[in-house]
Amino acid sequence: MTKQLTSFYLQVAEVPCLDSFAVHGCDEIIIFEWWQDGELWLGTKDYYILRWSSEKARFCIGDANNVSFSNEEEFIMFSDAVVALANVYS
Q: Do 78 and 59 form a contact (C-beta atoms < 8 A)?
């Protein structure tokens, strides 16, 4: 997870807004809002949330109440999670 995030942030400071999809910048404190729950809040598209879950050891797409909507929204690769979230509504 750390290698994937480091690689992403070395190449891209943030993804500001792709059809209402935003990946938080690596220096934004909001990433750690759910750290006490073992989660990093990495990005948002509308009410969908992209986060890292240490419990699941996956990048997950869910909402404020659900870490992930289902196993299909849990990814080993950060890039796969970003693409899946970017394609919501497609």
A: yes
